[in-house]
Amino acid sequence: MIKTIRSKLSVKVFLLTLLLIAVCCFTTYSFILQAAPKNYQYDIEDADLELSFWPDEISRTEKEYAYIFLESMSDWIEEQYENEFELHFFQSDGQEVSLHNINQLAGGQITDFDKVEKTKTYTASFADSDSIYTLLLTRNPDKHTQTEEAIQKTLPTLCIVILAGAIISAIFYSWYMTAPIKKVSKLSKQMADMDFSGFCPVGRTDEIGVLSDSLNTLSRKLATTLSELQEANQKLQADIDMERLLERQRAEFFSAASHELKTPITIIKGQLQGMLYQVGRYKDRETYLAGSLEVTDTLEKMVQELLAISRLDTPGYTCKKCNLYLSNLINDRLTAFEDLFMQKDLTVEQSISPEIYILGDMQLLQKVLDNLLGNAAAYSGAGNQIIVRLWKENEKANLTIENTGAHIPDEAISKLFEPFYRVDQSRNRQTGGTGLGLYIVKTVLDLHGAEIKIANTVQGVIVSVQF
Q1: Which of 152, 236, 271, 303 is the most buried (most CB within 10 A)?
Q2: What span, in angstroms and rounded, lies between the C-alpha atoms of 401 and 381?
Q3: Judging by beta carbons within 10 Å of its beta carbon (0-12, 13-18, 19+), is residue 457 exposed, middle or buried?
Q4: DSSP letter string over 147-159?
Q5: Whose CA is closest to 30, among 19, 42, 18, 22?
Q6: Residue 205 — φ and ψ, nearest 5°?
Q7: Rounded Cα distance, 383 and 457, in Å
Q8: Does the pLDDT at position 443 exceed 90?
Q9: How confident is residue 343, by pLDDT bands cut at 50, 70 and 90?
């Protein structure tokens, strides 16, 4: 039965409408009954004052004429107080007697009136009898209160209220029926326009509730599927763009590498052929053998750097990090470069904070420091300074290496970390290296999550690294 009611819209509407009208009527009557004043026209104290004189009257009356006195008093009370009070007369044992015959019991007890509104109890005896009687006045339960009278007077108003309640109920249920259908219709239109962001909040279990839940589920699944397709397309496009970029960079790298390798090989080949056939100036073999060896050293250095780059760029490569004493490593590398600095007549100013540790690969970071210190020595003229500072700030280690007397064109700063790029466009080996040093530095620092910047200063060029 309950399952049928919950699943059938027509039955549900009929029962709910019927229940709502009944509740409306009941609520209206209850509200009036509860809100109207629960009082009578006369106070019980007024009757109590009258009753206090009756014992004396009874004491002057003979018992056989008691019914005349009591009936007359009862009629007087009914007339005086508009039937709001009743007179009760009890024997000494608490049994109530009839006002028309005090020798006949009325069937009540004085204790029956303990919880009702009543006057004080008064005792009296008749002139010719020693028997003690008790009398009191109580409210007449058959008398209509002002509340009941007010309800009777407001019956026309109550009818209007009931009618209005029925109309409101009909309007409410019209809304109750059409509102969810409108929501379902709106959601279906959004879905037809390929907009799956809508939601139909209808918490029902009937046919409309099942339909709205089905549409909500369908909308969510379509939105999820569409979102997944869009994300997959975006990821695929990003992968394609990245692959194209890597392929282009790889092609540019190999093109530059082949050019860089071709130059020293051509020089060595020419010098060896000249010395072999003793052509002109190449008859001085000692001089050109030394030159060939120098070019071979450069070629070897380039090949080693290419191998290092190949290893660092291998997919999935991770460096072996450990808790590294950075302060000590920098001091060791400065000591290793002392001879070079002395040969170039360079002075070193250092400010290395002690006890600075980072998580890193010692061999790779040593290569970084060697490249940076080597560049600082290579591009600073005699009599200049190399200023090295290391300090910790905001839980980050900061390293700067500044070489005075040098300058980098502003348009070249953004290209310094590109492979085979040298500021000297003539690619003179006396003024520039292989062009891979800073590229390796940037690659290693990226593996360590560090940032590097190069900028011109008033004195020269500064390299800033933040771990």
Answers
A1: 271
A2: 16
A3: middle
A4: HHHHHHHTHHHHH
A5: 22
A6: -115, 5
A7: 18
A8: no
A9: confident
Instruction: Look up residue 143 and give its DSSP letter.
Output: S
From residue 287, how far is each of 279, 294, 299, 393 by CA, in Å? 14, 11, 19, 53
Residue tagged 């009839």 (tokens): 98
Separation between Cα atoms, residue 381 and residue 68, nearest integer Å: 145
Question: How large is the average pLDDT for residues 161-180?
Answer: 70
DSSP state for residue 425 in the 8-state scheme = T
- Cα end-to-end span (Å), the chain: 74
Question: Residue 100 contacts by C-beta under 8 Å, 6 or more apart in sequence?
Answer: 67, 70, 71
Angle, CA of 367, 373 and 375, to the nearest 5°: 100
Q: Which two tokens stand for residue 45?
A: 């104290």
Between CA 451 and CA 395 the distance in angstroms is 15
405, 424 Cβ separation under 8 angstroms: no
pLDDT tens profile 55-88:
888 888 888 888 888 888 888 888 888 788 888 8
How many Cβ atoms from other residues are within 10 Å of residue 374's Cβ? 15
Name every residue whose Cβ is closer than 8 Å to that of residue 20 and which is 6 or more positions away in sequence: 169, 172, 173
DSSP string, 89-138: EE-TTSEEE-SS-TTSEEEEEGGGGTTS-B---EEE--TT----EEEEEE
d(Cα 252, Cα 245) in Å, to the nearest integer?
10
Residue 49's contacts (CB-CB under 8 Å, 6 or more residues apart) are: none
Phi and psi angles of residue 124, each rounded to the nearest 5 degrees, phi first: -155, 160
Q: Provide the mean pLDDT of the chain.
A: 78
Enumerate residues 6+ apart whose C-beta is below 8 A from 162.
24, 25, 28
Of all residues in the chain, the percent with pLDDT exceeding 90 is 6
Structure-block tokens of residue 354: 């002690």
Is 85 buried (19+), middle (13-18) or exposed (0-12) by CB count in 10 A?
buried
pLDDT digits (tens, 9 = 90+) for 7-35: 555 556 666 766 677 677 777 766 765 66
Distance CA 389, CA 100 (A): 124
If phi > 0 it is left, if psi is from -120 to 50 it is alpha, else beta; for residue 235 that is alpha
For 190-239, write each residue's pLDDT tens digit: 777 777 666 666 666 666 777 777 777 777 777 788 778 888 888 888 87
- Name the pairing type of β-strands 122-124 and 133-139: antiparallel
